């Protein structure tokens, strides 16, 4: 039946004599609900939070479209059919708001018990919606059914609205009190949005009808203001999406742009009367839709890749932090262990030295020889401990250098002389050539550390040269002293050469040739040379082809 | 962190309920039109007890009775619109549920009054 005293709407919704505010409040609510709902669900269909937000938008949309039909339509059948959905829609809006708030705050789904409670609360609204208890009659004169609505519509769903407002508020306050900074801001934004939505929907609806019934207001137009709530809610959801990347939405700008373009083109279709223009605009709409789809898809893929790279970078940074921590602990351990070993070793060596010197009586020759071996091993061990301590000092940046201006050549000559005997004992020929240009040439040197460097290099070379000769040459090249030791020893593979000066990286054969090798000597050597602003490196043509160690130091 | 639903209780219980309710509602309101309509029927204050209401904008007094009819009956008698339909103002024998309420003190609402040859309501002393 058609309401006899009302104007039939144009385009189903448009009635010229209705207040303009009606459209200003409904249309943004419809548009924003549609936009947010679709964008959020499109971005992550599996996320429960996104599904619930879509649910809120969907029921808001249903409610808004439903009430717009009620405002504008004049067919009693259509009006009552639409009217029957309003109760369940409002109920779902209330329950989904609670459910959404819970999942947003707890980051998990609600329990089965709560779901059963929600189901029980919603079921009567759905069951009674099409019944005679809810909508028995229709007033053709007033073109509405307000006077005949049953308790489901007059009491139950407004009560659900109040329940939702209170429940959501309790959840928000409880979580806000124990939340951290960022989460606090998110709770405030979401809380204001959803409470505004619920409050404006339910109070405007309730007060609109109540005040009209008691005669305080001439009509229920006040409920129109309630629909601004949806626009406000979506603004806050938008802030959450942009600011905190909530709801896994990362394409909002692209999607909004495409959607705005489509709306613009569709609106042009609505106002076009010319057939040619209509065809052209329709083709534009189709092309925009298709290209928009591919654009969004490619932007999405790029964003996913970027997020993946960001995640990898974060993981790498975390791993790096852990490695640094392990490195620090290792250095700490090395330092503590070395310190603990040094003191007893010194005492052992001192006592053995005294025994060997006969301070406690003369020893049998076999005992003397055995004890001499013990003394030498203890001395090696003490040297190793000192090296470890150096490593720990270098790593912790605690190594101290005492630089003085000193002639370099005598230092090198003395070191070479000191190793001549051990080389000859091994059957090696140790040759040395000194550039006369280096005489009187001075460098900034820490004598003790430089001796350590020279000893390390010479000792290494002799150890790893089973036969042949070791040639030392010292020359002056452009204000730099170049110290070179070339041997006919075991040589090195490119892999060994690459890691030779790394900590704990002894060469492939080093353990076989020198079981005491720890792989720290050359590391310390390099650190000392670099502290002298010099360079040290090794060259070899390969395994079995000898090696050359080169050190360069700046002269004064 | 992404949260996924643990179970689909809403989907399995409420969605079928909603679909059934929608179907029932469509059948009742759109197909059958199974409801009562109430409207203001014509009334002659010279011969009947009529409700009277003044239109605030035009100042014109409207006289009417309150008619209730079963929507399918009214549709069968008058079609989509009751304007100009004489059956809309009378109850016929085939009407399942029909009533015409003339003005009485009990039936008066706010801003309504009774007008007749033997008036009640605001015209009553």
Helix-strand pattern of chain A, N to C? HHHHEHHHHHHEHEEHEEHHHEE
- Largest interface chains and counts: A-B, 42 and 37 residues
State the helicity of chain A in percent bands: 55-70%
On the 0 to 100 scale, the average pLDDT of chain A is 84
Mean pLDDT of chain B: 83
Subunit organisation of the chains? heterodimer
Please explain how this structure is put together.
- Chain A has 556 residues and is α+β, with helices and mostly antiparallel strands.
- Chain A is 65% helix and 9% strand.
- Chain A has a 5-stranded mixed beta sheet with strand order 3-5-6-8-7. In chain A, strands 2-4 form a two-stranded antiparallel sheet.
- In chain A, strand 7 and strand 8 form a beta hairpin.
- The longest helix of chain A is centred in the middle third of the chain and has 82 residues, at 275-356.
- Chain A is elongated.
- Chain B has helices at residues 9-32, 71-78; strands at 36-42, 50-54, 61-70, 98-101, 113-115.
- In chain B, strands 1, 2, 3, 4 and 5 form a 5-stranded antiparallel beta sheet that branches.
- In chain B, a hairpin with a 6-residue loop joins strand 2 and strand 3 (61-70).
- Chain A binds chain B through residues 1-2, 4, 44, 46-49, 51, 76-78, 80-81, 84-85, 88, 103, 107-109, 112, 115-116, 118-119, 122-123, 126-127, 129-130, 132, 135-141, 215, 248, and chain B through 1-7, 9-10, 13-14, 17-18, 21-22, 24-26, 28-30, 33, 35-40, 68, 71, 74-75, 80-83, 110.
- Strand 1 (137-139) of chain A pairs parallel with strand 1 (36-42) of chain B.
């Amino acid at each position: 039946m058609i309401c006899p005293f009302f104007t039939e709407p144009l385009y189903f919704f448009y009635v010229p004599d209705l207040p303009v505010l009606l459209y200003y409040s409904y249309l943004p609510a419809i548009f924003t609900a549609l936009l947010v709902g679709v964008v959020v669900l499109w971005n992550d269909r599996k996320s429960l939070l996104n599904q619930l937000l879509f649910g809120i938008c969907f029921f808001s949309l249903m409610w808004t479209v439903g009430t717009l039909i009620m405002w504008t339509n004049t067919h009693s059948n259509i009006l009552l059919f639409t009217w029957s959905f309003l109760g369940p829609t409002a109920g779902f809006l209330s329950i989904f708001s609670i459910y959404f708030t819970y999942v947003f705050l707890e980051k998990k789904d609600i329990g089965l018990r709560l779901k059963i409670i929600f189901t029980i609360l919603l079921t009567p609204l759905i069951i009674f919606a099409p019944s005679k208890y809810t909508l028995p009659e229709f007033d053709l004169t007033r073109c509405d059914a307000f006077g005949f609505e049953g308790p489901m519509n007059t009491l139950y769903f407004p009560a659900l609205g109040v329940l939702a407002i209170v429940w959501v508020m309790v959840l928000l306050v409880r979580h806000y009190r124990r939340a951290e900074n960022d989460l606090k801001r998110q709770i405030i934004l979401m809380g204001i949005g959803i409470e505004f939505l619920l409050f404006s929907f339910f109070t405007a609806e309730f007060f609109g009808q109540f005040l009209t019934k008691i005669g305080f207001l001439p009509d229920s137009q006040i409920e129109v203001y309630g629909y601004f709530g949806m626009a406000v809610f979506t603004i806050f959801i938008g802030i959450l999406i942009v600011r905190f990347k909530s709801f896994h939405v990362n394409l909002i700008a692209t999607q909004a742009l495409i959607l705005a373009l489509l709306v613009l083109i569709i609106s042009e279709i609505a106002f076009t009367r010319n057939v040619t223009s209509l065809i052209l605009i329709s083709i534009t709409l189709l092309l925009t839709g298709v290209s928009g789809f591919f654009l969004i898809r490619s932007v999405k893929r790029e964003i996913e890749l970027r997020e993946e790279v960001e995640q990898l970078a974060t993981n790498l940074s975390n791993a790096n932090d852990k490695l640094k921590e392990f490195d620090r602990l290792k250095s700490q351990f090395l330092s503590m262990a070395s310190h603990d070993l040094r003191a007893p070793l010194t005492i052992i060596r001192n006592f053995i030295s005294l025994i060997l010197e006969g301070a406690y009586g003369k020893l049998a020759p076999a005992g003397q020889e055995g004890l001499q071996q013990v003394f030498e091993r203890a001395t090696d061990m003490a040297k190793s401990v000192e090296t470890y301590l150096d490593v720990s000092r270098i790593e912790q940046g605690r190594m101290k250098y005492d630089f003085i201006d000193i002639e370099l050549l005598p230092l090198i000559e003395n070191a070479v002389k000191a190793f001549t005997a051990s080389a000859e004992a091994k059957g090696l020929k140790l040759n040395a050539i000194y550039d006369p240009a280096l005489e009187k040439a001075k460098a900034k040197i820490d004598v003790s550390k430089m001796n350590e460097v020279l000893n390390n290099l010479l000792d290494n070379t002799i150890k790893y040269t089973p036969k042949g000769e070791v040639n030392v040459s010292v020359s002056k090249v452009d204000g730099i002293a170049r110290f070179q030791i070339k041997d006919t020893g075991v040589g090195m593979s490119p892999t060994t050469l690459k890691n030779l000066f790394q900590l704990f990286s002894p060469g492939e054969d080093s353990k076989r040739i020198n079981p005491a090798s720890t792989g720290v000597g050359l590391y310390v050597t390099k650190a000392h040379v670099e502290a002298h602003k010099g360079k040290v490196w090794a060259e070899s043509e390969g395994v079995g082809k000898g090696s050359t160690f080169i050190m360069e130091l700046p002269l004064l | 962190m992404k949260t996924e639903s643990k179970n689909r209780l809403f989907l399995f219980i409420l969605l079928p309920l909603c679909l059934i309710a929608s179907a029932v509602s469509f059948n009742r309101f759109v197909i059958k039109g199974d409801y009562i309509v109430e409207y203001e029927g014509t009334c002659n204050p010279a011969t009947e007890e009529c409700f009277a209401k003044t239109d605030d904008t035009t100042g014109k007094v409207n006289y009417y009775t309150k008619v209730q009819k079963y929507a399918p009956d009214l549709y069968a008698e008058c079609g989509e619109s009751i304007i100009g339909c004489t059956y809309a103002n009378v109850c016929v024998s085939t009407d399942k549920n029909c009533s015409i309420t003339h003005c009485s003190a009990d039936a008066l609402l706010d801003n309504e009054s009774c007008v007749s040859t033997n008036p009640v309501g605001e015209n009553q002393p």
